[in-house]
Amino acid sequence: MNKQLRQAVIAGNWKMNKTRPEAKALIEDLKPIAANATCGVVICVPYTNLETAIELTKGTNIKVGAENVHFEKSGAFTGEISADMLTEMGVEYVIVGHSERRQYFGETDETVNKRTKAALNAGLKTIICVGEMLDEREKGITEEIVGMQTKVALLGVTAEQLKNVIIAYEPVWAIGTGKTATAEQANEVCSFIRQTVAKLYSQADADALTIQYGGSMNPKNCAELLAQPDVDGGLIGGASLKAADFGVLLEAASK
Ligand code: 13P
User: Fold this and answer.
1) What is the pLDDT along the chain (255 residues), one digit of tens a residue?
2) 70, 98, 100, 107: which is the annotated catalytic residue?
3) Containing H/E element for 125?
């Protein structure tokens, strides 16, 4: 029942894929497919494709996001992009704390929190990624890990700002591996995240929060995952790179 209190959002995370001509072709294919979706539709694309994506999606229901953002406003941070640079372009969403950033680029709960606050202060809708590694699940500490990631990411975030937050539960062992969490496993952790947020804010705030599942979601397994009471959409890697596959996910999330 509470599912009606929030919007399901399907967000593509293109990761380090697609040159500009490839991006253009994918977005043109996606536009008619996405047009009937009643769920939120977001594509998070490499920085080099942001301008193309914003231009091509004008007047459509497809929103554009970046895949990361730096926490400082400006300055000597070679290679980084600030939240103001994104909003000025018309970017509406940003992913922070993706497990690939945590694993390969030294991202910590603290830097995820800084990025989250910088993004929210600039008015970006912020998709915060949390999720346990395989050995953490096997040791039975999934809730401790995900609880800590969630709590630290949200330090200093006001209840008003929480309205611009989406949390994506992405078990690291399910990303790009073809191993999906079962629908029950996904729902269990999404529900735990909601309870954690309810304790930090209020039950009403938690009930209004969109919590996505991510990790090998595809046209075959999406219906079962998206039907779970606490799963409000998905953060999609591989299946966001093919318009037809992404379309099946949008349809499933629009039911
Ligand atoms: P896959 O859908 O390719 O497993 O990637 C999930 C993901 O990391 C989305 O952010």
Assistant:
1) 578 889 999 999 999 999 999 999 999 999 999 999 999 999 999 999 999 999 999 999 999 999 999 999 999 999 999 999 999 999 999 999 999 999 999 999 999 999 999 999 999 999 999 999 999 999 999 999 999 999 999 999 999 999 999 999 999 999 988 888 899 999 999 999 999 999 999 999 999 999 999 999 999 999 999 999 999 999 999 999 999 999 999 999 998
2) 98
3) strand 125-130
Whether the Cβ atoms of residue 12 and residue 236 lie closer than 8 Å to each other: yes
Q: Which residues, in sequence order, are CB contacts of 75 under 8 Å at separation 6+? A: none
Ligand 1 pocket, 180 CB below 6 A? no
Q: How far is the CA of 75 from the centre of ligand 1 (A)?
A: 32
Q: Are 227 and 183 in contact (CB under 8 A)?
A: yes
Please give the torsion angle defined by the CA atoms of residues 138, 178, 252 and 163, in that order, rounded to the nearest 10 degrees: 50
Token pair for 167: 């949390």
User: Are 89 and 51 spatial neighbours (Cβ–Cβ below 8 Å)?
Assistant: yes
Active site (annotated) includes residue 98: yes
Task: Give the long-range contacts of residues 133-142, CB within 8 A, separation 24 or more.
Answer: 133/172, 133/173, 134/172, 134/173, 137/171, 137/173, 142/171, 142/189
Dist. CA 194–CA 211, nearest whole Å: 8
- Is residue 238 within 6 Å of ligand 1 at its C-beta? yes
Q: Using an 8 Å Cβ cutoff, are 127 and 235 in contact?
A: yes
Is residue 92 flagged as an active site residue? no
How far, in Å, are 77, 112, 177 from residue 43 at the CA level? 26, 20, 21
